[in-house]
Structure formats: C-alpha cells, structure tokens
Amino acid sequence: MTAPHNPSSERVLILAPLGRDARIAQSLMGEATIASLIVRDLDGMIAGLVETAGAVVVTEEALQGVDLSPLAAWISDQPPWSDMPFVVLVRHGAGAERNPAATRLSELLGNVSFVERPFHPTTLISVVRAALRGRRRQYEARARLEALRVERQHYLDLFENIDAGFCTFEMKFDEAGRAVDYRFIETNPAFEAQTGLTNAAGRWMRELAPDHDAHWFEIYGRVAMTGEPVRFESSARELGQRWYDVHAFRLDKPEQRRVAALFNDITPRRQLEARLRQLNEGLETQVAERTAERDRVWRNSRDLLTVVGIDGVFRAVNPAWTAILGHPHEEVVGRSFREFIWPDDLKVTEAALREASDARDLTNFENRFRHLDGTPRWFSWRTSAEGDLIYAYGREITAEKQQASALAQAEEALRQSQKLEAVGQLTGGVAHDFNNLLTIIRSSVDFLRRPDLPEERRRRYVDAISETTDRAARLTGQLLAFARRQALNPEVFEVGACVCSLTDMLDTVTGARVNVQSSLPERPCFVKADRSQFETALVNMAVNARDAMNGEGTLKLRVICGAGLPSIRGHAASGRPFVAVSLTDTGEGIAPDIISQIFEPFYTTKEIGKGTGLGLSQVFGFAKQSGGDVAVESTQGAGAAFTIYLPEVEEAAEPAPALRTNRPAPVGGGRRVLIVEDNVEVGGFATQTLQDLGYVTSWAMNASEALVMLKDPDASFDVVFSDVVMPGVNGVDLAREIRRLTPDLPIVLTSGYSDVLAQEGRSGFELLQKPYSVEDLSRVLRLAISSSLESGR
Hints:
This protein is of the alpha/beta class. 43% of the residues lie in helices and 23% in strands. The protein contains 23 helices and 27 strands. The strands form five sheets. Strands 16, 17, 18, 19, 20, 21 and 22 form a seven-stranded mixed β-sheet that branches. Strands 2-1-3-4-5 form a five-stranded parallel β-sheet, with helices on both faces. Helix 14 runs antiparallel to helix 15 and helix 16 runs parallel beside helix 17.
C-alpha cells in the first residue's frame, strides 16, 4: 500500500451516483483543501481502494442493490494496521439507531460514520477530517510495525550469522538453592558448530552432557540470581576438552531465571599459548644455538651475504667478499656499493636498490661487481627489506654466464648453418629448374638464328620459348607463394560454389580411377582471397593426393563453414570463424619423420622428373598470406588429409568483376604513355614495344623524374605505366601521389615481386604481373584508358 507521504494516501474517494451529491461533496472538500476523487461505481471505488486512499465518502443508495462481496473481501484482506474509514451519507432520519440497513452497513464496513442529508458543509468536512486523522494514525502504526519488523529481522540475521555461539537458557536450582542444570531455549548455528551439541533447544544440559563440569552451573546460577553479567574463560571436558571465552548476562525478570551466553571457541588459542609456554622455557638456549648457527652460516657461506642501508652503504658483509671478490671484508663495510659495482651496471643496480627499499623483495636480480684485479664478476641477488636495512644474498653466476654465452654463440652458429643449408637447398632447386628452362630457351634461340630454318620449325621453337617463359613465370609464382611475397588479387567469393565448379577439372586431373567425392555445406560461406590461387592450391593438393594413391582410390573434398582454427605447428588457435576446405585421400599416408618437411620448397618424395616439390609450398604460402593456415593429418598406411583454413567473411555487397577474356592486342591509337622504369633494358623494351603498338611514349627512370614530367604544362598523358620496385620512392607511393595530384589519370603498375605489394596489396591500382606478354600490356593499358574515359563522362 502507498506510503503516507504519497499524496494519493490522503485522497478521499467519493461514490454518489445519483444527483449532484458527488460534485457538491468534491467542491466542499476542494474548498477545505482536501484531495478527492469521484468514482463512478462500486468497482471503481474498490479499484481506488486497491491503489490507496485516505477515506471513502459513499451514499447509501450506492450500496443498495449491488453485490457487496468484493468490497467485503477487500475490507477483510486489509493488513492488521489498516481500518479504512467510511463516511456514509444517508437520508434524514435513517441513522444506524433507526435503520436496520445502516446497521448491516456498519457491520460490513467496520470503521464507518453516518452523516444524514441534508447536512451542513462544516459537518461533512469535520467528519472527513476526523476520518483522515484516524487514517494517518494507522499509517503511523504501520511505520512503527515495520520498524519493529526490521529490527526483529536484524536481530535474527545477527543471531543466525555471527561467528560467535549464542544461546539462552533457564536455570534449575535444587532445594538448597544450588544451580544443578539448565534447559536451552534457543541456540544459533554457531552454537552447534562450537559445542558439537545438536538439537539442543528444549533439552537439559545434563541430558546432553551428563558429566558437564559443575563450575559452569555455579557461574550461570550466580548470574541468574544476582543479575550481574560475567566474562570468563573456562574449559569443558565433556565437550571435547574445549576452551571457551564466555560473556553471560541475565534475561527478562529475575524470577524467570533466564540467562543468555555469548561465547567463542578459543581452544586453538589456548593450545597455542600452551605451546608458547613450552617454547619459552627453552627459548634462551634456542636463541643462543640459533645465534651460533647464524654466525657459522655467515662466516662459512661461499656466497655473498650483506646488510646494506637504503643509502647504498654496506653495514655488514661476510668473509666470502674476500674469497670471491678479493676485497678484505672489513674494508668494504662503511663504503657505498657504487665503489665496487661494474660501471655498466650502475644505473640498473641503483634502480634495484630503490625497488628493494620500497619493501619489494628482489628475486634473481643480476649485476656485476668489480674484482680486486679489475675484472667483472656476475651475481644473482635475492633481497629482503626490514626498516632502513636491506638483507641481500648474492650467488656468483660468472661461470654460468660464460657457459650461456658460449651456448648462445653455438646456437647462432647452428642457426646460420641451417639457414645456409636451407638457402643452398632452395638455390639448388631454383638453379636446377631454371637451368632446364634456360636450356630450352637457349637451344631454341640457337636454332632460330639459322637462316635456312623452315617456317614450321621456326614457329615450333618460338612456341617452345613462349611455353618455357610461362613455365618460368609459374615457377617464380610458386616460390613467391611459399615466401608469402606474391601480389594477390583478393576478392570475396563463395567457397562451396568455387569447389563445385572445380569438381569436373579435378576429375580430369586425377584420372578415371580416382573417385572424387564432395561434401558442401547447406549455407553459403564466403572468404576474401585470390580465387585463382585458391583454385591452384586445391589442384596442387589433388595432384599430390592422386600421386599418393598411385592414380587409384577415393578423394574426398569437404567444406565446413564457421570452423575454428586449431593450433597448427605451434601457432596459437583462433576462435574467429574460418572456412575449412579439406582433401582426404586413401593413399599410403606420410611418414612421421618427414611430415614436418613437406611444405619446404623443392622437397619431394617423387621420382626424378615427376614433381618439382613446389606444389605444397604454394598451398602453404597462399594460406598464410591470406590470413589462414594449412594443416595435415596422416596415419601411415591409412591416407592423409590436408585442410586449408581461410578467414570467413560477410558476403560482398557487389559481385566480383567478370574475368577478362583474351583478345588480340589493340593498337595504341596515338595515346600518350608515361613509362616509369629504373631498369634500362626493361624500360627500353617497354618503350619500343608500345611505340610499335602505336602509343606515344615518354620514359622516366625514377619517381622524381616522373613527377617533374607530369607537372610540365606542355605534357599531356593518357596513362602512367610504372614499375613497383624502384630506388627511392616505390611505384605504389608514386601512384598514390599521382592520384592525389591528378585523380582522373589512370595508373597501371607492374612487378614480378614486391614487399610493398605482398604486405599492403595493390591499393586499388591495376597490376600487370611480370613477365607479361605484349598482348597483356596493350590490353591492360587500353582498358585503363577506356575505364578512365567512361568514369569521366
């Protein structure tokens, strides 16, 4: 029910459905500054009572001919403090003493006053105010009851939750007036925990502990008879030889002989005191022995022991200072550590001293002190501070440091040897494959120089050079993929659709005796990666699986969306969603001793001529550069499973651009091209090639020259064709500057390899990979110019 300070708790409800009685009553109360509310019927009045009210004014006719049971139920359900006052307006001469109906209303309403109509305004206001005063007293009673309830609850909470045991009991005396027993009235949970007595309420102490010590009854009997509280400590043999600290006082009237006891089990303290007394008996002897022992440790310790002030001055040092550092220990006392510290370690030692002075004990702090012969000695220190003194223990670790240094040098030499071995393997593989390719090119060129070579053979050798160039480009691409230095062309694509489109190709690649099965997810899952490299990786893994099965078996492709990235080769796992694409074969599996080497470039277990050893290295490099990883699981004799993990992304807002088709090289049509290339041979070749295709060319050797030529008011270029790797400003930074100066000028970048491209991407610029053909060069330039013209319309 609403609190007394709520205005609605002083509100008077008015129910007078006939005539103007309700408006008149409300007007009179308004003049008397009494808040009121007119209700339309009995249900409205009950609703107002449920909300809250200070009193009710109701006409007798409003209570006639209606079901009064809901009102009776509300009156019956009032809390004990509440007795809602009702003022009933009756017709003249229909008071309770002459009107049986009024008598029934009085029995129903309880706290009711009758006012006969017509009435004088002051009569009604007086009765209403009297009713409101009574209601206020009810609110005050409620507040007092609530305070008592809260106080009682506080007592119960304290009673139930205090750590100290508490109980109340009534004493029993014999005919001679001696206390012989007591019966428990109430106990708290701590009572049971500290005494071991369960269900004690209502039971006598002699029943619970028949041989309970008599002095407990005597002490409590005096408290009950005299009313004087007592505080004492005593033991209770019957309660397990426990000791208690007790505060007892009388409760209620003296004739009730009731006592309350608050107590704590102090058995551990008393046992400790007993042990302390035993220790104190031989303390002087023990102190003397310990002092002698400490002195022996101090004198005979092979490590440095010292007491140093927070000012850094030695207060005491043990003889080991002489044995280890050569300084007579008596000459060290009274001098600052700064006189003995190795100069390079002065600052860190001063910082360590400040830390130790702040009572932050040091552990394994290392520094060097100067030997008497001028050489450094390494020490590992532990400290403990007390007041203005620091107690320090220093263990010499000079030999350990020398061993660690020698070990580090050996490890570095081993790492360098391993690096050289890896570089040797890599360069050997690269030299082998490139020498094969160069042999084809060199032989073809030698034949092409013959003047009498038939046209058919000439075309054959030209095609051989072209195909060998493509193979060399693929070889360098695989190397860059392993090194994670290839320039990727990432796009958002749906993995399931891509894998599905590759199935026919994989059937062809693996052969008719390999059964390719695929399992795709029900929902689409997207990744942002170079689609071409992704497809190449799947083909490389499929070819490896085919060879592992000797061309016959089952190859299962499976795509899982929202997979977690497990810990692979010691790298931490990741909880973000990844798309997992796995290929599982039924081959012979991979031997455990070589599984760690399979991703190394040029590593292969295949026969000579049947593999380059770059397939899996491309898979590894592509996955790592795309923000993912590749895992392999294999049981020898039961096949292997390779899984590529790529970060899952949201579907792209716009579809990826359609793949460009190969067309004959378009002519330049007099378009002006600014070539930026620092390599003289490549720059000259590009210039001659573009001029042959009908372009007008200008050549800058570096970014600075290019910017000067672009700022020339007489120069006008349709496109910039720039290398990426150049001394000074690289091609990507040059392109950004050109875009800032001339936003509409198209830019095409070219590179065979670039750290900038591998780490930062193309930054939105068109990229032509080296080596490129004349057709590719002309087509890319023409498309860049066309796109610029279309966007400028």
